[in-house]
Specification:
By secondary structure, the protein is α/β, with parallel strands linked by helices. Helix content is 36%, strand content 21%. A 7-stranded mixed beta sheet has the order 2-3-4-1-5-7-6, with helices on both faces. α2 runs parallel beside α3.
């Protein structure tokens, strides 16, 4: 079994999107890079990539932020998986999830994409839905507000105060998924 993992944070490139709810995946991989003292560099797979280890002797982690728009995340993800010779069961996508309350983290392997176009494109490009997902809850829009507009807005000032805790929790969940497996991570993060 490979001890290398590809962790792809989903988001949109450019400063105008940087604090959007849709970019929480980018924010989480940036937190993971900080923990590993890793620096992002441009990769030919149309992504910014940082590599490191969670601990001395631990698995190698390849963190990626696709440099294409969210809906095209599959190409860079599949290219990186091929470049590093990884199968889908060593790919983790970190993304925003409107069907989970804000400040909540859930994990799963495979399943549907819940209308998330970034995940749909990754599933298409990998040829399978059987990759891991770390789902960072951003909550549903109020009332009948449009979900697409909701995720393309910045976090509210109230949410921004709690956002560091969400980023920490999603980072911790990703580390635990790699180190201890899905069930251990689900037990911890689905019950807290």
């Amino acid at each position: 079994m490979s001890d290398t993992w590809l962790v792809v944070g989903l988001g949109n490139p450019g400063p105008g999107y940087s604090r959007n709810r849709h970019n929480v995946g980018f924010m989480v991989v940036e937190e993971l890079a900080s923990r590993m003292s890793a620096t992002f560099k441009t990769h030919k797979a149309k992504a910014l990539v940082a590599t490191g280890r969670l601990a001395v002797g631990g698995p190698k982690i390849i963190l990626a932020k696709p440099s294409v728009f969210m809906n095209l995340s599959g190409g860079p993800t599949a290219s990186l998986a091929k470049f590093y010779n990884l199968t889908a069961d060593h790919v983790i996508a970190i993304h925003d999830e409107i069907d989970i309350p804000f400040d909540t983290v859930k994990l799963k392997l495979g399943g549907g994409e819940g209308g998330h176009n970034g995940l749909r494109d990754i599933s298409r490009a990998l040829g399978t839905k059987d990759y891991y997902r770390v789902r960072a809850g951003v909550g549903r829009p109020p009332g009948r507000a449009d979900a697409a507009s909701h995720v393309l807005r910045d976090f509210s000032s109230t949410e921004a105060k709690t956002l560091p805790f969400l980023l920490d929790a999603a980072s911790d969940a990703t580390e635990m998924l790699v180190a201890e497996g899905l069930l251990a991570a689900q037990e911890k993060f689905h019950t807290s």
